[in-house]
Amino acid sequence: MIFNKDTAEKTAEFLLQINAIKLNPRNPFTWASGWKSPIYCDNRLILSFPAVRNYVRDEFSKNIEKQFGKPDVIAGVATGAIGIGMLVAESMGLPFVYVRPEPKKHGRQNQVEGFLQKGQNVVVVEDLISTGNSSLLAVEVLREAGANVKGMAAIFTYGFDVAEQNFKSANLDLFTLSNYQNLLNLAVAKRYITEDEEQTLREWNVSPSTWTIEV
Q1: What distance in Å separates the CA atoms of residue 136 and residue 122, rounded to the nearest whole number?
Q2: I need a surface site. Which of 32, 42, 112, 155 has the fewest CB within 10 A?
Q3: Which residues define the annotated binding site for 5-phospho-alpha-D-ribose 1-diphosphate?
Q4: DSSP code of 3?
Q5: Which residues have a Cβ under 8 Å from the Cβ of 104 and sit 6 or more positions away?
Q6: Where is orotate bound in this sequence (predicted)?
Q7: φ, ψ of residue 79 in degrees (nearest 5)
Q8: Closest Cα partner for 126 from 117, 134, 118?
Q9: Which residues contribute to the annotated binding site?
């Protein structure tokens, strides 16, 4: 769920302004999974815009403490959430670690990079939630390392049913700065897309794995 409506609307507006979210219902993108999608989200662009990254940092810092209490450690999911996660940790005066998708192939073969003690309370910062699988893998790694994962905070979620089910199965609360619903509402209001394109985007969101564009 979103932290609050005002933040969700403002975050969506920023993401559209800096082209972090691209909407192209007529010429869909192809994701790494092979899914065809009329939307592509690249939140790494946030780091290149000081006003936007500072807003995201401050909203995360404020709402993480409000929702989860102040944790002992902030963890970022590699690689997309390392930058913003570090900014949040700095703002909150907390240690920072990040979680690799798999253990390092050499050296100490770490999967969690940074100093983490068993029993510490951790909030995970993520940039984007699609199915939630890669994000929850990071949570599993942290739990295996002995961390008490209080929850996850992400910039944006597509709001897929499968993600909701995955987080429920993992017994983990997810809060986001913005989501798909707020994005579409704003995109229509600001005329980034037409009402017909909005309908296409809503149809895709219901069944993204099987969606195809009508020719």
Answers
A1: 14
A2: 32
A3: 100, 104, 106, 126-134
A4: S
A5: 110, 111
A6: 130
A7: -100, -20
A8: 134
A9: 100, 104, 106, 126-134
Bridge partners (DSSP) of residue 176 are: 2, 154
On whether the pTM is more than 0.85, the answer is yes
Q: Which fold has domain 5-203?
A: Rossmann fold (3.40.50)
Query: Which three-class secondary structure state does DSSP give residue 95?
Result: coil
Beta strand 174-179 with 148-157: parallel, antiparallel or unpaired? parallel
Residue the block writes with tokens 């936007």? 52
Nearest CA to 19 out of 44, 36, 50, 54 is that of: 44
Length of the chain: 215
Strands 36-37 and 21-23: unpaired
* Tokens (6 digits) for 85: 């996660």
HEC string for 97-160: EEECCCCCCCCCCCCEECCCCCCCEEEEEEEEECCCHHHHHHHHHHHHCCCEEEEEEEEEECCC
Residue identified by tokens 């102040």 is: 70
In a structure prediction context, what are the per-residue pLDDT tens digits for the chain, which is 215 residues long? Answer: 999 999 999 999 999 999 999 988 888 998 888 888 999 999 999 999 999 999 999 999 999 999 999 999 999 999 999 999 999 999 999 999 999 988 766 666 789 999 999 999 999 999 999 999 999 999 999 999 999 999 999 999 999 999 999 999 999 999 999 999 999 999 999 998 888 889 999 999 999 988 887 64
